[in-house]
Design brief:
Shape of chain B: globular
Radius of gyration of chain A: 19 Å
Number of helices of chain A: 11
Helix content of chain B: over 70%
Strand order of the largest sheet of chain A: 5-6-7-3-8-9
Radius of gyration of chain B: 18 Å
Structural class of chain B: mainly alpha
Shape of chain A: globular
Distance between the termini of chain B: 47 Å
Largest sheet of chain B: none
Oligomer: heterodimer
Number of strands of chain B: 0
């Protein structure tokens, strides 16, 4: 059995009366790709921040492997325009980095040509790859990717997911990524965890999409995953269910008994 | 006379050389108003220094660091918007300082010199302070350059990679407080921030890397000191404001003359 990198044990976070996370159980193993999905405001980011140690759990605990090394790729990169910074200098900021690794890492991600570019002029897809490079330079055994394909077109998304899968295969690291769109991630994911403050359901993508709690949040998948790759036929369903979710408390109680 | 000018020049150059790189951080982290708040409180430090009969520089440093800590604590509590909080603290501290100074009847204190600086009043002891403080600041900046920059670029990434972000943030505040303490004699509490941010902002136009910008800010600050001092000598203008005017002119030149810069 592969090494367990992180285990959430009944983790809860609440401030005053507001419950952000409630009794979350989740495990990430070496070599496993876990995708975290959930509607807006469901606590995905809070969960990631708890894992990273940026936020402290008010209940339960996060058990980390002794040798856990996280490579973190934030949702976006805001660098003040008054700070002149090339990609090379940005990557050299990784703690204890071996500078000779910077170019090979960029080459692996297909962006070696950006090495002297200013970080302010990168496109969405380029920024994501530079951030991924920074995460990799930290020599992680767990990659944490917060919406890694944000602002990237569909072709670019497929490429990025392939890249991430390739990295997993090469390093045998665990991967935790956040997504609010399952269709593209599906084929690359071992485990899906669907949260809405609490864990609604988790398991293989096939299991989760068939689960009533998932369907209450995201709708019934109209087709099998290989066809669902052509994602955006479902866009309207998404919107619809955003509405259903906010108006209908029934869907909440529906997933409560998991 | 020559002695006087030489001391003024040495003091001014020392301060400008240090204020530049630190100013770059102030600009990058959008701490300009924060720096102003600390600077304004320095006058209170002077008053306390006289009242308690301790070294003025030390009093200023202690007060600035103390205020910085109060500021960070209040900021975390989200009682009120940060800019409002800074405005309240800056002007209360300045007013409190002015009130406190008025209690010092037995000591004659040149208020204008503390508010706007008096480069020509620099003595040997001041020079020692400027240079020992300056060397301390530059050394700390060089040693902790990478963590400071990593935190400035992205605090969360830095924290995840294991940088002690809280400690570094504290260090940066300490450095700002130090620079304020040594720079007060030169440009006064009301103008200190300008000596940090104007050269740094000017340097932005001319640099492609953080190191370039920080060192360029030093050079530009030194030019401003030379120009200001010369103008002050030539036309008998107040030195502190002259230095700031000179820095502002350099800024205007940098941003109006079309230098080529890779964006």
């Amino acid at each position: 059995m592969s090494t367990r990198l992180v285990a959430f044990e009944k983790v809860g976070i609440s401030f005053d009366d507001r419950v952000l996370l409630d009794s979350i159980d989740m495990v990430i193993n070496e070599g496993e790709i876990v995708t975290l999905i959930g509607p807006n405001g469901s606590g995905k980011s809070t969960l990631i921040r708890t894992l990273l140690g940026l936020q402290v759990a008010t209940r339960g605990q996060v058990v980390r492997h002794k040798k856990l090394r996280i490579g973190y790729m934030p949702q976006k990169l805001h660098i003040d325009p008054t700070l002149p910074l090339t990609v090379k200098h940005f990557l050299a900021l990784v703690r204890g980095v071996d500078k000779s690794e910077i170019r090979p890492t960029l080459e692996k991600l297909g962006i070696a040509y950006l090495i002297e570019s200013q970080v302010h002029v990168l496109s969405g897809g380029e920024t994501q790859r530079v951030l991924l490079a920074r995460a990799l330079l930290n020599h992680p055994n767990l990659l944490v990717l917060d919406e890694p394909v944000q602002g990237v077109d569909v072709n670019g998304q497929v490429e990025l997911y392939n890249l991430i899968e390739g990295i997993r295969d090469e390093l045998n690291c665990g991967v935790l990524m956040v997504s609010h769109d399952l269709h593209l991630v599906m084929a690359k994911t071992d485990t899906v965890v669907c949260i809405n403050q609490h864990v609604c359901c988790s398991g293989t993508p096939q299991h989760v999409t068939g689960h009533p709690a998932y369907q209450a949040l995201f709708g019934v998948p109209g087709a099998d995953e290989s066809i669902a790759i052509y994602a955006h036929q479902h866009d309207h369903v998404h919107d619809d269910h955003g509405d259903v979710l906010s108006n209908d408390d029934g869907s909440h109680s529906h997933c409560n008994h998991h | 006379m020559l002695d006087l000018l030489l001391r003024a020049l040495l003091g001014g150059l020392g301060v400008a050389a240090v204020a530049g790189p630190l100013g770059a951080f102030v600009v990058w982290r959008r701490m300009a108003y924060f720096g102003d708040t600390l600077a304004h409180s320095a006058l209170l430090g002077v008053a306390l220094g006289f009242l308690l009969d301790i070294n003025l520089n030390l009093a200023i440093i202690v007060l600035c660091v103390g205020l910085a800590l109060v500021l960070v604590t209040l900021q975390k509590k989200h009682i009120i918007a940060t800019d409002t909080l800074l405005g309240i603290l800056a002007h209360s501290a300045l007013s409190l300082g002015l009130v406190a100074v008025s209690f010092l009847d037995n000591i004659r204190i040149d208020l204008m010199a503390y508010l706007f600086g008096d480069l020509l009043a620099i003595n040997q002891t001041d020079l020692y302070w400027i240079y020992s403080g300056g060397i301390a600041v530059i050394t700390l900046l060089v040693v902790f350059w990478k963590p400071l920059l990593a935190m400035t670029v992205n605090e969360e990434l830095a924290k995840v990679e294991g940088y002690p972000v809280e400690a570094i943030r504290l260090l940066l505040m300490l450095l700002v407080a130090l620079v304020i303490a040594v720079a007060m004699k030169i440009v006064g509490v009301l103008l200190i921030t300008s000596l940090m941010i104007i050269p740094a902002a000017t340097a932005r136009k001319l640099s492609n890397t953080p190191v370039q910008m920080a060192s360029m800010a030093s050079v530009i600050g030194c030019l401003a000191v030379c120009g200001g001092l010369w103008a002050s000598y030539r036309w008998d203008t107040p030195t502190g404001p002259s230095v700031v005017v000179c820095a502002a002119m350099l800024f205007l030149i940098a941003y109006t003359v079309p230098f080529k810069r890779r964006r």
